TrEMBL record, chain A:
One of its GO terms (biological process) is protein import. Gene3D superfamilies: TolB, C-terminal domain, TolB, N-terminal domain. GO terms for cellular component: periplasmic space. Residues 32-41 have a biased composition (Low complexity). It comes from Sphingomonas rubra. It is found in: Periplasm. Pfam families: PD40, TolB_N. This is Tol-Pal system protein TolB. Residues 23-46, 307-326 are annotated as: Disordered. Residues 307-319 have a biased composition (Polar residues). Keywords: Cell cycle, Cell division, Periplasm, Signal.
TrEMBL record, chain B:
Belongs to the Pal lipoprotein family. The Tol-Pal system is composed of five core proteins: the inner membrane proteins TolA, TolQ and TolR, the periplasmic protein TolB and the outer membrane protein Pal. They form a network linking the inner and outer membranes and the peptidoglycan layer. The lineage of its organism: Bacteria, Pseudomonadati, Pseudomonadota, Alphaproteobacteria, Sphingomonadales. The keyword Isomerase does not apply. SUPFAM superfamilies: OmpA-like. This is Peptidoglycan-associated lipoprotein. InterPro entries: Bact_OuterMem_StrucFunc, OMP_bac, OmpA-like, OmpA-like_sf, Pal, Pal_lipo_C. Gene3D superfamilies: OmpA-like domain (3.30.1330.60). It is found in: Cell outer membrane. It comes from the Bacteria.
Length: 463, 174
């Protein structure tokens, strides 16, 4: 039911966009332009530092987007959508922890002509350092066009602009794409707002908890359940093309890994066997699935074609080797092993050779996952509390991002600058919830879900 | 709650029976809590309660053995003397009913990460299986399944609950 989104770069950088009723034919492109170069030096000097040393979030104005004509669409009327779009953009930027959107009710909404010619005299009185304006228009073909513009208020210059054409059902994605454009331009980091999270929805008593696969946008919107809860399901992870999800299920009381096709809702067993298979994860190119198999009390890591077939064994230690995750180039795998006594992190080549321990701090280390940027590995550290942390792939620079009783199982945002994880409460009534934290460790927030949630996996940026 | 109530009823019934057989128990049993009722298996088919127990059934097994559950230490999977004594009674029952098949569930406490717990539960179930095999139970009669920390017997977040949850539970199939 998920329709692919056709994005077009509508607006040539120099062309006046809304000058007349007849726009020049746009040059459609499959994907938006690559992220702008880091916003440093010239062009107004607006810089947001993602990694740390942030003095204060940047004040930013995201006024309601005007519409050329109020038109009823399947997603609602265009004037209501203009208000909601600005709210979604402001919410994304606020959630990043790097921006403070000014209260929309206090902001004057621009007219359509003002979208491309901001009234800087007014905006300079609001305290906003940067300004996001845009418009929404219902097209004759039923699609919606959303324009998105970023201005430096003090320098009175335009920093970037993008246009998005979406079917009405995907209207929220236009807001996320706009927020991504703003974020990328002002931080120099990759975008991440137009992405989804798959996770395990939890309800019921702790001793007999009902677990269902569920999928939603990263901000919690468009939530839907994928499985009915009759069997325990665990550890879902997206395929790189986002068409399918690999996960573990107890269906038939044979705990095994399955691939769920999002489009058709069909599931297929990956490895035919009688042993327990678990901890699945796709390779970055989608051709392989890494997984663990427990046989006779020994657990090792294997690789199998995503289409099935004979698994190839990658580890061969008498201990528990599990939790494998590929480096983004597919050349290496980080995993956990208790071969030294307790759980520790190891890196090996993709063929299983050259296994090297990388974690040496006190306590145990588990659930390693390689950042999509390649520069960091997120993990769970077990030392009294369970905490989410990061370290370099060589084991240096360890930094713990959270400190709660039970934080576990990090998963990276598409740009490798935020992780989502599950936080569990104590006792019989203790529920698990989804949280996220950025690399500063400061911006920690709960991701809203209808019920409890565990095992979140953040998907790639949507095309 | 249903399981707990059933357990309490069973415990009460057992006390009543004991009271008939003997004049009075020499040592008062501990006050009933959610804890020590692990003899009532939280998983697997339960036999008739209060009615006749079919010989060779899981209910018969549970009535005949010291316990269907053996416990493990923190992050451990070795069969200690207490577990050996329990498994010996299980092996004896399984020798009496050589056509019965069993599955052994391996479980963990919640203070481990999810995937590691799945592997550790497999270790524990296999430790129990290997011990029974050494006691003469044919391995082909036994299957194992790890639930990690997905199905705790006790739902507290304290050492007493964790100790009960680090377990292997034997269930007679069919």
């Amino acid at each position: 039911m998920i329709r692919s989104l056709t994005l077009a770069l509508l607006l040539a950088a120099s062309a006046p966009v809304l000058a007349g009723a007849q726009e020049p034919a746009p040059a459609p492109q499959e994907a938006p332009a690559p992220a702008a170069a880091p916003a440093q030096g010239d062009q107004g000097g607006l810089v947001v530092d993602v990694e740390g040393g942030i003095s204060a979030p940047m004040p930013i104005a995201v006024p309601t987007m005007p519409t050329q004509a109020v038109v009823q669409t399947p997603a609602g009327s265009t004037d209501a959508l203009g208000r909601q779009l600005s709210e979604i953009i402001a919410n994304d930027l606020r959630n990043s922890g790097l921006f403070t959107p000014l209260p929309a009710a206090q902001l004057r909404s621009p007219t359509v002509p003002e979208v491309t010619a901001p009234t800087y005299d007014y905006w300079s009185t609001t305290g906003a350092q940067s300004l996001v304006q845009g418009f929404i228009r219902a097209n004759g073909d039923g699609n919606l066009t959303v324009g998105c513009y970023l201005y430096d208020v003090a320098a009175r210059t335009e920093l970037t602009r993008q246009g998005f054409v979406v079917p009405p059902a995907d209207w929220r994605r236009a807001a996320h794409k706009c927020a991504d454009t703003i974020y990328a331009r002002l931080t120099g980091e990759g975008p991440y707002f137009d992405s989804r999270v798959v996770y395990v929805s939890e309800t019921g008593p702790k001793a007999k908890r009902i677990k269902r696969l569920a999928i939603m946008d990263q901000d919690g919107a468009n939530h839907r359940f994928l499985t009915n809860g009759q069997s325990i399901v665990l550890t879902p992870r997206f395929a790189p093309n986002q068409q399918s999800i690999v996960y573990m299920s107890y269906v038939g009381k044979i705990p095994s890994i399955y691939v769920y096709d999002i489009g058709s809702g069909r599931q297929r067993l990956v490895v035919q066997n009688v042993a327990t298979t678990f901890a699945p994860r796709f390779s970055p190119d989608g051709r392989y699935i890494l997984f663990s198999m427990a046989q006779g009390g020994n657990t090792d890591i294997y690789r199998v074609s995503a289409q099935g077939g004979s698994p190839q064994r990658l580890t061969n230690s008498p201990g528990i080797d599990t939790g494998g995750s590929y480096s983004p180039d597919g050349s290496r795998i980080v995993f956990e092993s208790d071969r030294s006594g307790g759980q520790q992190l190891y890196v090996m080549n993709a063929d299983g050779s050259n296994q090297q321990r990388i974690s040496f701090g006190g306590g145990r280390y588990a659930t390693p996952v390689w950042s999509p940027r390649g520069d960091l590995i997120a993990f769970t550290k077990l030392a009294g509390n369970f905490r989410v942390g990061i370290m370099s792939p060589s084991g240096g620079g360890e930094k713990l991002l959270t400190d709660s009783w039970s934080d576990e199982g990090p998963s990276w945002s598409p740009n490798g600058r935020v992780v989502t994880f599950m936080r569990s409460g104590r006792g019989a009534g203790g529920a698990a919830q989804l949280w996220s934290v950025d690399l500063t460790g400061v911006n920690e927030r709960r991701i809203p879900t209808p019920l409890g949630g565990s095992d979140p996996a953040w998907g790639p940026l949507r095309p | 709650m249903f399981k707990l109530n059933t357990g309490l009823i069973l415990a009460t019934a057992a006390l009543a029976v004991a009271g008939c057989a003997k004049k009075r128990p020499e040592v008062l049993p501990p006050a009933p809590t959610a804890g020590p009722l692990q003899e009532v298996a939280p998983t697997g088919p339960s036999g008739p309660v209060g009615g006749e127990v079919v010989p060779g059934s899981n209910a018969d097994f549970q009535r005949s053995v010291t316990s269907n559950t053996v416990l493990f230490g923190l992050d451990q999977y070795d069969i200690d003397p207490a577990a050996r004594a329990i498994l010996d009674t299980q092996a004896a029952w399984l020798q009496r009913y050589p056509d019965r098949r069993i599955t052994i569930e391996g479980h963990c406490d919640e203070r481990g990460t999810r995937e590691y717990n799945l592997a550790l539960g497999d270790r524990r179930a296999n430790a129990a299986k290997n011990y029974l095999a050494a006691r003469g139970v044919n391995a082909s009669r036994m299957s194992v399944i790890s639930y990690g920390s997905e199905r705790p017997a006790a739902t507290g977040s304290d050492e007493e609950a964790y100790a009960q949850n680090r377990r292997a539970v034997t269930i007679v199939l069919g």
